[in-house]
Predict the structure.
Amino acid sequence: MSENTRKYLETSQIIPAKGMSYTMYEIEGQDTILRMLTFIPDNDEIHIYPKPPVKKLYKPELCKKVEENEFLGLWTMGEERKAGN
């Protein structure tokens, strides 16, 4: 599997009493979700999903593209926090 086939996409929504929530997806091919994470900056929350509950991204064309390093940086932070609990 080549790294070049991966792309990183993001959706966002408002969570009442928490602020904006950003869900980022590591995608292979057209719409296959490899990993996903949710980031709520106002609460400094990161939730990582190494085995995402959803395997196919619905309407990837509606998502915003994000940089690989942004996804990987948050993913690493999420792993570190999980290990610390």
